[in-house]
Amino acid sequence: MSIAMDTPSIRSGFFEPFLPSLVEEMIDEIKAKVPEYSRVDPAYIANMREAVEGAVSHFVNLLDDSETSLEKLTEVYRFIGWGEAREGRSLDNLQIAMRLGARVALRRITVESERHDLPRSALGELAEAILLFLDELAASAAAGYHTASEQVAGEQSRRRRRLLDLLLAEPAASQGAVAEAARNAEWRIPKTVAAIALQERRTEEFLQPALPPDVLMDLSRHEPCLIVPDPDGPGRRQVLEHALRDWSAAVGPTVEITEVGRSLRWAREVLGLAQRGVVADEGLIRCVDHMPSLVIFKDEELVWTVAKSRLAPLLDIRARHRDRLARTLLACLQNGFNATEVAARLHVHPQTVRYRLHQLEELFGEALYDPDTRMAFEMSLRVWLTLNAEGRAD
């Protein structure tokens, strides 16, 4: 940085008589105009004085020697910016304080220049030099601030992931450990929570969801997940659905904080069923809307063993017709054997439904309408149709 003056009359000697009082004026102005810096803490005041005195002293030295190193001073201002971010303040107050200091300096220099009858050109050069100097310090402070902001964000992210790990731990972590981790992560422990299991959809660009700040998130896991406080609160579902529109997402049951691991297990179960096509992958999938499927497929080997016996009459029919009859029977069971409703669901004519139902009656007889066997039929059909679609029914 080169701010050496071409005008011989403006050198460090010009400032020496009023330098101490200038520093005091700058400090008083900053304390008066920036409430955040009007502390009575002796250590804080000493640090502010050191910063102001260091800046003024370096500037004066630069007037005599443009090669004077600014490294130590810029390091001081990087540290000041770093400290502002670490204490959770914005950079605005520091920038205001620096501008106030420059304004006081220009005002005092103007008075002194009139007293010494300095030419206006010299005063203009001096003002430009002050602004250039101020830019250097502001850039250093901003660099320190951004470095600390990234560090703070990283630390906060690690603490929140640590909290998420504790909440999902099995066996469950102690309440004391969870409470301490929540304090460190600045997260208020809610009355109820729900876990969300995630699966990234194949998109051209990875998009991290923009979620409310109280949602705990870890997308770096092999199986990404979220913990959502107060999941049944007003508007909560709409916010989550919008944020997760680029993900396949399933939300587990609403539970107390100590049972969030169970909520995540169910969420992952239903997300797995969505990947297999058992449940529709549309929007935010809710476990509570798919409990029958979750129960049926929790032990599909057992259900399949029953299915092979229960659906045996279908096995001798050619595959294409067998599939149509199986889907018709499932729709009949789910719609009370109402031919019109079944036809609408299958997108066929009601007479077609009646024809297929007659064939099913020939295969299964009165067992088709036995209340005690209807649930076994429905469970068997759902598993059989899923495995058939996956090519595993044989």
UniProtKB/TrEMBL annotation:
Top-level lineage group: Bacteria
Domain PucR-like N-terminal positions: 14-168
Ranges where the PucR C-terminal helix-turn-helix domain occurs: 325-383
Name of the featured protein: PucR family transcriptional regulator
